[in-house]
Each structure stands twice: as C-alpha cells, then as structure tokens.
Amino acid sequence: MTEIKHIAIAGNIGAGKTTLTNMLAQHYKWEAMYEDTNTNPYLSDFYDDMNRWAFNLQIYFLNSRYQQILNIRNGNKTVIQDRTIYEDANIFAPNLHDMGLMNKRDFENYYQLFKTMSSQVEAPDLLIYLKASIPTLVEHIQLRGRDYEGNMSLDYLKRLNSKYENWISNYTEGKLLVIDVDKLNFKERKEDFGYIINLIEADIHGLFN
After folding, report:
1. Which alpha helices (DSSP H) does 75-189 contain, by range?
2. Domain containing 35: what range?
3. Given 45, 48, 82, 98, which residue is catalytic?
4. CATH number where 70 lies
C-alpha cells in the first residue's frame, strides 16, 4: 500500500469520520490529518450567528484543507484525511448560500477560489463516504456533546444530508467507497471494524489491478 498517498473520509456532521480516521490510522500505521475544529477561530461564533460568520468559516476551512492536500502530496507518507476540500465547496458553502446565510457575492467569490485551488491538487486515491441517516447523526452528535453543536437544527442536518447524497451520486474525481453506518458500530464492535477493513482492502488492491 506504499503507492497510495491519500485516503480521505467524507460524511455529514456526526457520521463518525474522526473516529474512523483515528482507527484506520492506527490499524494501517497511516498518518492522520484531522478537521480543524478545536483551533478553528470561527466555529463557535458561526453556530451563534451563522449569517455573520459563514463566509469567514468557509474560507478558513478551504485554506486549511488546501494546505493539508499540498502537505500530503509533497510528503512521503500515506495520509488519511478527515473530511475533504470537495465537501466545503459542494455541500457546506452551497447550503449556507441556499439558506440565505451567505450572500451571492461572497458565495461566488468563495467558489471561484475553490475552483482555482482544486485545479492545482489531485483527488484522494480513495474516498470513503460514511452514509448515515438523520437519527444516527443526531445520536452521535448528542453523545459527543460539543457545546457549539447544541444549537444545530434538524433542518440544517437534513439539508446537508441531501447535498451529500447528490454530491456522492455524481462523484467522478476518483475511487469511491460508500459505507452505510446506520447498522454499524465500528467503534465498539470489532467485527464491524473488520467488515470496513475488508471493504477497504478490496478497493485498495483494486487500484492496482
């Protein structure tokens, strides 16, 4: 597997991306790159006032993930990335625009910047999408108990899920593995994690067939 440089995990808020990223990094001895939520200076403000901070938040995430991709491709290790640059541009920013939380001028400015950045980087060698229903997402979000997620509405999650499904159904940038996590508990059940490993192994080996 040394030929593979970049594995990425995509999924809605609460799908289990960070948990699976950590577990796969340990299993395969890959280097993990996580979404910057703990040090992101806009995230808490965004959940308190989405209209004011939407553009700032999305620019921060876009820049952060662009830097991650450059580091991955310029490095000599296999890296697994928690969330992708494509999700920012195809799910989160358009959703904010649709909800009237990011105006047309800011969204168009953001999206042009994304197109410039994405034209300069390669897609992940394998994209793993964690598909989850709204009840599963809500359960996971409540269990982790992040204060800034307490104000998140069900409508917001539903809108994101709809955009995720649309994006994944049209994803053509590279190899894709979709995992339905509604009936899996890979954090607690070894057999569920083993099931995911088997799926990944089949796809990884398929990259070289």
Report:
1. 85-87, 93-98, 104-118, 134-144, 154-169
2. 6-206
3. 82
4. 3.40.50.300
